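Course assignment 3, question 2. Fill in each field.
Student: A.L.
Task: Predict the tertiary structure for the chain below.
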Amino acid sequence: MNAPIGAAVIVQRVGAALAALPIASAVVGLGGAHAKGQADALSDVDFYVFGTDIPAGERLMEGLAAHLPDAADFQTWSGTGEAGIDFRLDGQVVEIWFRETAQVLAAAERALAGRFEKEDRVWTPNGFYQSTVLADLMAMQVLGGQDPDFAGLLERILDYPEPLRRAAFEAGLAPQRFWRGNMHLETAIARLDRYYLESILHQMRSGLIQSAFALNRKYFGGDKKMGLSLRQLPVLPGGFERTILDPSPPDSIPAWRSRFDALFALADELCVLIGEGTA
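Answer field:
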């Protein structure tokens, strides 16, 4: 296991507590930075629990508190077929996401078939991509439980699906194609309409990141530690990370034009790399 020694004790304790919860056909996994071997001193310890008939968050919280009497600062939420619980244990933040297996399998099947779905969720500022479930599952270390359908899915996602690659790549390029030569962008630059320009810039950067992951046949796992994630992609246009993560705010019309031109150039290079000419 890649978790540090301190986190390993938490993994053992929380894993045992999760196994005791009344969740049918439960599969428990370690996720996040600890599963990927990327944890630092600030990383949560993330768990995924998949099963059927997920109880409400309050009931799950009560069960965990009974098995972890020294846990503190519980927070919980519930949604359709899912629930989440955060708390502290031995000073470490623990995050648990409970999800109905059937919903996860359905979302995974849609992604494998090339459905690139995005929805608004308050805890994902750039939107929640349903296909990130595949990244979660690829990185997850199964701690306990068995489900043949779930096991079968874990085998199938080892090879990045071409339909998802095509859909994610095209969705990522959509903002670049829309804004290139767009009169509204030109007017915003001329006005130095900074908030609007920053919104467009961020939309384009987010799209290019999606296309870059698809180019490399790597499941996109979320926005955290993006610099590290980009450095793990072997095929990228020159200067991609530097341009995408450039923190300096443009302060003039020429500077804004230069910033957008740099993103349009990255889009063209991504298309060349995937064999499509230009964006």
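Instructor remarks: The chain has two domains: 5-156, 162-274. The mean pLDDT is 92.
Grade: pending
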